[in-house]
Amino acid sequence: MQKTSLATPMLALAALIISPPLLADNAQPGADLVVGAIEGVFGVTPGERRNHIKGTCAAGEFVGTRKAARLSKSPLFSGKPVPVVARFSVSGGNTKVPDVAKSGRGMALEFQLPKGKLHHITMLNTPMFGAAQPQTFLDLMLALKPDPATGKPDPEKMKAFKASHPDNLAQADYLASNNPPASYASSSYWGIHTFKFIDKKGTATLVRWQFVPQDGEKRLSDDELKTAGANFLESALIERTKQGPARWDMLVSIGQPGDSETDPTVLWPAERPRIKAGTLTISRAEAQKGAPCEPINFDPLVMAPGIQPTDDPILRFRSPTYAVSFGKRLSER
């Protein structure tokens, strides 16, 4: 298997992600406000991410399929192995969040393409997002801010938030009714948003994707929730990759007229046609401190030709928000 070069110098990446056009176009007060609200909930660990702070680095490769290459001219689908730097994570900004928490798990991928080009994919282990608009996410963070008297969110504020933000309910219900994964390697991850595949003729196809584990889906049982411990996910992934590569199939759903392009809280019908677009192979994992994934800002709008974003307001807002968080942690080192 091709060996992956994992080094991504922080300053070079900063120059790539926070370029002058991005700052001019996207560094808006709204992004600062959202990052500040996240800090209000979890506090600040200097030099670290504001969200998905607890994570594990990994590396491997991706090989695309001919079926995907017919729909997208992206070099991801050339059929040749593409080196990948990955990061698996638990949502939230608390470094001590337990791995049994009924919250989101993330998979972030940086594809290292020929000629120094990069492509990012960031995913969650829920098929939908918990906000149709950035305001909903901001309001959730404001409602979750701990009351100084109790150290916990105000129940009345949370009740009011749920009553006034129905776009949060589907993801909240999904997380409440599904136990967390037993391993990062036994979980599916969804791209959440709608994207466009662009072929060699310039034809666009609306797509959504899911990375499905070849190990099969496995969640913690109710009994295992009580005994798994607070920090099992990292060691489980490291041990899993020592036994042999962990793999996920990238399954791409093809959009039809009327399918939502801009609302990540609305699922597409299950009967939409799907193709296998490729296979991700993770061959090794390690603690993130000082590891290659640690400095990377996994901005989902870092894209190579052949894949484009839609006008999903959450997708578009993630980039400036990630940039604000990234800039803060760079300045704190």
What would the keywords be for this entry?
single chain, about 325 residues, alpha+beta, Catalase HpII,  Chain A, domain 1, 10 helices, globular, disordered N terminus
**Can you tell me the CATH architecture of the domain at 50-129 and 170-319?**
Beta Barrel
Q: Indicate the CATH topology of the domain at 50-129 and 170-319.
A: Catalase HpII,  Chain A, domain 1
C-alpha-based Rg, rounded: 19 Å
Mean residue pLDDT: 92
Q: Count all strands and give the number.
A: 10
The profile of the biggest β sheet is: 10 strands, antiparallel
In terms of DSSP E residues, the strand content is: 15-25%
Structural class: alpha+beta
Name the helix and strand elements from N-terminus to C-terminus, one letter apiece. HHHEHEEEHHHEEEHHEEEH
Q: What percentage of residues falls in helices of 4 or more residues? A: 25-40%
Global shape: globular
Ranges where pLDDT stays below 50 over 5 or more residues in a row are 1-29
CATH class of the domain at 50-129 and 170-319: Mainly Beta
- Going by CATH, what is the homologous superfamily of the domain at 50-129 and 170-319? Catalase core domain
In whole angstroms, the N-to-C terminal distance is 35 Å
Count of helical regions: 10
